[in-house]
Amino acid sequence: MRMSTWIRQHLAALRALLVLTVITGIVYPVAVFAIAQLPGLDDKADGSLLERDGKLVGSSLIGQSFTDADGQAMARYFQSRPSAAGDGYDPLSTAASNLGPEDIVDTAERTSLLTTVCARSKEVGDREGVDGTRQFCTKNGVGAVLSVIGPRDADGDVSRPERVVSVNEHCPAVPFLREFRGVAVECAIDGENYAVGRIIPILGDAPAEAAVPADAVTASGSGLDPHISPEYAAIQVARVARARGITADQVRELVDAHTDGRTLGFLGEPRVNVLELNLALDERFPLQG
């Protein structure tokens, strides 16, 4: 290849690089930014931020907790769903727990997903005055799981147990079952490994349809979900009304006003934006004194 041809090719490549850099690196971003500042688009482009009295209070796209300094739910506010992002709703640590339905046995290092769900359901039930019991949960809010120890048959079942241990109830707790297949159920002793037994979750007598909805006891995939289900909002109405000294119908009116339907009429589920609802409560029914 002649030197002049080589130089012309490289000069053409350099010109293309400069032109594309200007178009894609300057013109296009500036054009998109300018369009985003048009009335009706600027709010969403800037992060859907919400302000009250000139103070930034959050974003309608990112959930937040409504708890006091001790981490207790504030009675006057609707509560969000749990979050697994950092210490809760941390945009820099967006994540899920990555635990699945087979995570049912507590360990010394962490609580199982089942016990976490059971504990949350009991807490929400106690707070909202509804039945917090759940299938596969004990009355005390831990996973109802047994380790059945003894010889196994061809199907892996233990027809004649030698020991039965409630693995998530540590001594001196009283096991949720007195006996299983004729053998007294023991509480778990710290440090002992019960994996040798067959692990059996117990259904229990809780209703198939729990009064505490699933979004009240499980975190979203991102950990940042700003919404709750209308069902979770409904069981919180009475508490919020009492705390603010207003009627339940007044609270329901605001809940309905802040309930969005399915996207495009068929995608997802109806949902309630918790931050927007709580801000509306403060604006319309401020606490006196």
Your description of this structure?
This protein has helices spanning 3-36, 42-45, 113-128, 230-234, 237-244, 248-257, 274-284, and strands at residues 49-52, 55-59, 145-149, 163-170, 179-180, 183-188, 198-201, 227-228, 259-260, 271-273. With 289 residues, it is an alpha+beta fold. It has a 5-stranded mixed β-sheet, with no helix packed on it. A 3-stranded antiparallel β-sheet has the order 8-10-9. The longest helix is centred in the N-terminal third of the chain and has 34 residues, at 3-36. 29% of the residues are buried.
Note the gap between the termini.
87 Å
Main structural class: alpha+beta
How would you describe the shape?
A: flat
Strand content: 5-15%
Low-pLDDT runs: 41-45
Element order, helices and strands? HHEEHEEEEEEHHHEEH
Overall number of strands: 10
Helix content: 25-40%
Q: How big is the Rg?
A: 28 Å
Q: Could you give a short account of the major beta sheet? A: 5 strands, mixed
Mean pLDDT: 89
Strand line-up across the major sheet: 5-6-4-3-7
State the helix count: 7
